[in-house]
TrEMBL record:
Gene encoding the protein: tilS
InterPro entries: Rossmann-like_a/b/a_fold, TilS/TtcA_N, tRNA_Ile_lys_synt, tRNA_Ile_lys_synt_N, tRNA_Ile_lys_synt_subst-bd
Name of this chain's protein: tRNA(Ile)-lysidine synthase
Catalytic reaction(s) noted: cytidine(34) in tRNA(Ile2) + L-lysine + ATP = lysidine(34) in tRNA(Ile2) + AMP + diphosphate + H(+)
Annotated binding of ATP, by residue: 53-58
Domain spans labelled tRNA(Ile)-lysidine synthase substrate-binding: 278-339
Domain tRNA(Ile)-lysidine/2-thiocytidine synthase N-terminal residue range list: 48-222
EC numbers on record: 6.3.4.19
GO MF terms, alphabetically ordered: ATP binding; tRNA(Ile)-lysidine synthase activity
Species of provenance: Phytoactinopolyspora halophila
Length: 349
C-alpha cells in the first residue's frame, strides 16, 4: 500500500514543481522573485485546483495534492462538478466537497452544471460542460493549474477509441500530460496503482456509468483490453501509451505547419463569413491540408469527438476531387461547401 501512495505523491510533486517553475518564469520582471513573493515580501503562492468526482482516481490525486502542496510551495484547492444526470448527484457532489475540505484543501467549490441537449453523445456533452465549469472556477479563484486524475489505463482506452473512430493520428496521440491549465500527473501510472493510493479512511464513489457496457469506453476497458492482454501478452496499455507519446510529437510538428498554412489560406467570403482559398489548400501536402480542414471545421462549431476521418475526406474532395458536388454535412449542424474558389463552413440553423 505504501509504495503506490509514494508513487502517486512523487508524480504529483514533480508536476507541482513544473507548475512552480513555469510560474516563476512567467513572473520574471513583474516585481516578484522565484519564491512567488512580491517586493513587500507578501506570499503569492500559485493556486492549484484538483478536479474530483469522488471516484478513486481523483480522490487519490486530491489526497496526494493535499500532502505535497505546502512542500512544493503552492496552495491547493478542489472542485467537484455535479452534472445533474443521476439521482442524488447534488448530495454526492457536496459530500465530495466535504472530503476535500477534510483533506485540507482551500478553496473548495461544488459546481452544479446543466448538460444541454444537442449534437454529440451524452458523454461528450457532459465533458464539455464539466471542462467549462472547471475553467470558470480556475478563473474565479485565479488558479494556475487544474489537476485531472487520468491514468495510463485511461490513455490506452483513449488510443483504442481513437483508432476505432478512424479520425487520424491526433486521436491516436491520446491525452497530453499538459494542455493549457490542465495537468495530468498520473498519466504514467496504472489505474490499479492509483486506486491503491486512496486513503484508507475515505470511501470512493464508483460511477455506475463506469461499468455500463452501453458506453464504448467501458466495452474497451472490460472486453477489448483484456483480450489484447491475453492474446498479445501483458503491457499492452503501456505500449499504447508509448505509441501515443510518439504520435503526439509527430502531430505537434504537423499541427504547427498546419497553423501557418491555415493562416495563409484564410480569407473572407461574401457576407463576412470566414473562408479558405482553395488554390492555397490544394498545394498543401495531404497531412497538412487535412489538419487545416479539421481545425477549420472545429472552429466552425463541429464537436471534435464527433468529427471523423470520413468527414475530413469528404471535405477534402471539395478541394482535390471537385466536380461541382454538393456540400458536406458535418456534426454540429455545419455544412462545408465550395463556392467561387473558396471553401466555407456555414451553420445550418
Amino acid at each position: 500500500m505504501a509504495e503506490p501512495r509514494l508513487d502517486v505523491r512523487r508524480a504529483v510533486r514533480n508536476e507541482l514543481h513544473r507548475i512552480v517553475r513555469d510560474g516563476a518564469q512567467d513572473r520574471e520582471g513583474d516585481g516578484r522573485d522565484e519564491s512567488g513573493r512580491d517586493e513587500d515580501g507578501l506570499a503569492s503562492m500559485p493556486l492549484v485546483l484538483v478536479a474530483c468526482s469522488g471516484g478513486p482516481d481523483s480522490l487519490a490525486l486530491a489526497a496526494a495534492l493535499a500532502h505535497q502542496a505546502s512542500r512544493a510551495g503552492v496552495r491547493a484547492g478542489g472542485v467537484s462538478v455535479d452534472h445533474g444526470l443521476q439521482e442524488g448527484s447534488a448530495d454526492r457532489a457536496r459530500a465530495v466537497g466535504a472530503v476535500l475540505v477534510g483533506f485540507g484543501l482551500e478553496p473548495v467549490e461544488t459546481i452544479h452544471v446543466r448538460v444541454p441537449a444537442g449534437v454529440g453523445g451524452p458523454e461528450g456533452r457532459a465533458r464539455r460542460a464539466r471542462y467549462a465549469a472547471l475553467e470558470s472556477a480556475a478563473a474565479r479563484h485565479g488558479a494556475s493549474a487544474v489537476l485531472l486524475g487520468h491514468t495510463l489505463d485511461d490513455q490506452a482506452e483513449t488510443v483504442l477509441l481513437g483508432l476505432a473512430r478512424g479520425s487520424g493520428p491526433r486521436s491516436l496521440a491520446g491525452m497530453a500530460e499538459r494542455t493549457g491549465i490542465y495537468h495530468r500527473p498520473l498519466l504514467r501510472l496504472t489505474r490499479d496503482a492509483v486506486r491503491a493510493a486512496v486513503p484508507g479512511d475515505v470511501k470512493p464513489w464508483e460511477d455506475p456509468h463506469n461499468t455500463d457496457s452501453a458506453y464504448a469506453r467501458v466495452r474497451v476497458r472490460k472486453r477489448v483490453l483484456p483480450v489484447l492482454e491475453e492474446e498479445l501478452g501483458p503491457g499492452i496499455s503501456a505500449a499504447l501509451a508509448r505509441t501515443a507519446d510518439l504520435l503526439r510529437a509527430d502531430a505537434d510538428a504537423l499541427d504547427s505547419s498546419a497553423g501557418s498554412a491555415r493562416a495563409a489560406a484564410a480569407t473572407t467570403a461574401a457576407g463576412g463569413a470566414p473562408a479558405y482559398d482553395v488554390g492555397t489548400l490544394v498545394g498543401l501536402s495531404k497531412a497538412v491540408r487535412w489538419r487545416v480542414l479539421r481545425a477549420a471545421a472545429i472552429d466552425a462549431g463541429c464537436p471534435p469527438t464527433d468529427l471523423t476521418a470520413a468527414h475530413i475526406e469528404a471535405i477534402d474532395m471539395l478541394i482535390t476531387g471537385w466536380r461541382g458536388q454538393k456540400g458536406v454535412d458535418l456534426p454540429g449542424a455545419i455544412r462545408a461547401r465550395r463556392r467561387g474558389g473558396l471553401l466555407r463552413f456555414d451553420a445550418l440553423n
